[in-house]
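[Meeting: bench + compute handoff]

Bench side (C.D.) handed over the final construct sequence. Compute side (W.E.) agreed to return the predicted structure before the next meeting so the bench team could plan truncations. Sequence as handed over:
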Amino acid sequence: MPAPLDAAHARPHGASDELVAATGKLSEALERIERARGALYEFHQLTGGADAMLDEVVDGLRATGHGALADRVREELVGLNAIEGRWTFQIVEEFDDGYYATFRELERVVRDETMGGRRHVFEAELKQRRRSTGRAGHEATPAG
């Protein structure tokens, strides 16, 4: 086990390699969920932006003599639920309040109970193993 970078990233006394790895894996999984959440928000914004563009489509169809098509787009597509009963903001809210909130809370609980609340203990030890001590650009922590 390499020496810690600093107290904020030090392995708690008695924590095994397996525990550090498992806790690190949970943090990595949370990072993936953060990325998925970002993709969900992107989906939300892209879908909402596309729906807003439909006003121009309806106007353009109507202006070019295609009133029936304009009416159909307006009635069938403008404001259509993304999934049954939900616009994308509702999907985002359900994800945030359910799965995402539960994932974040359990990651914090596991980290608090196993690593004393310390984040990135696994990565900090990896950094210590991989850096070239004394070499510029390989410092353990920022100067200061």
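W.E. noted at the follow-up: Residues 127 and 140 are 8 Å apart (CA to CA). C.D. will use this when planning the next construct.
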